[in-house]
């Protein structure tokens, strides 16, 4: 399957599960897209379940956590890339963080990741999520923005098998958590009514990046 065919198939499948797919020409464009998205949305007002109960002092302190600014979490980035991203965020009054996400469980607006791979047949993004901060960025944020390099797009999961095996022993150790993210978080467990954002982000934005010309 040619790259343009895989790209079209990925977009079709991802959008069927409520993902929003766009194309960017560079990582800088991806940062700008994310900062614009964060600036336009309402600040995250995530409430911790159970805060109305009698709680321990530590739990009460967590419930009182209010985001003082919009927050983008971008763990696992190269220092030079993070610095470029942070400059854009600072200009808009947005807090960009790369670690210590447990301190911000009261509200993360956007989790930003660069995918390891993507699968066209299912519209899935593949992430080595061994890092706790990366898991939190993709699970407790209101919006997940994932950059997919077109060079890492594969037609099927089977076509990705050999590369997944290589990923499993990257740096001499296997990842403890390999995630396949397909669309926004959803469930129909409650009276068979589809609800988004119950177990994770309300929105998934996939930015397809033509990283090889």
What does this structure look like?
This protein is α/β, with parallel strands linked by helices and 213 residues long. It has one domain (3-40, 58-209): NagB/RpiA/CoA transferase-like (Rossmann fold). The chain is 30% helix and 24% strand. It is built from six helices and twelve strands. The strands form three sheets. A six-stranded parallel β-sheet has the order 1-12-7-4-2-3, with helices on both faces. Strand 5 (117-119) and strand 6 form a beta hairpin. Helix 2 (27-40) runs parallel beside helix 4 (79-91). The longest helix has 14 residues, at 3-16. The chain is globular and about 55 Å long. The model is unreliable at 193-197 (pLDDT under 50). InterPro entries: FTHF_cligase-like_sf (IPR024185), LUD_dom (IPR003741), NagB/RpiA_transferase-like (IPR037171). Residues 9-208 form the LUD domain. This is LUD domain-containing protein.
Q: Taking strands numbered 1, 2, ... along the chain, how are they ordered across the largest sheet? A: 1-12-7-4-2-3
Under CATH, the homologous superfamily reads NagB/RpiA/CoA transferase-like
- Shape assignment: globular
* CATH-assigned fold name: Rossmann fold
Please give the share of residues in helix: 25-40%
Proportion of strand residues: 15-25%
Provide the residue-averaged pLDDT: 84
Instruction: Tell me what the CATH architecture is.
Output: 3-Layer(aba) Sandwich
Structural class: alpha/beta
Total beta strands: 12
CATH class: Alpha Beta
What number of domains? 1
Would you list the SSEs in sequence order as H and E?
Answer: HEHHEHEEEEHEEHEEEE
Q: How many H/I helical runs?
A: 6
- Main sheet specs: 6 strands, parallel
The parts where pLDDT drops under 50 for at least 5 residues are: 193-197
Gyration radius, rounded: 18 Å
Distance between the termini: 18 Å
Domain LUD: 9-208
Pfam family, one: LUD_dom
Protein name: LUD domain-containing protein
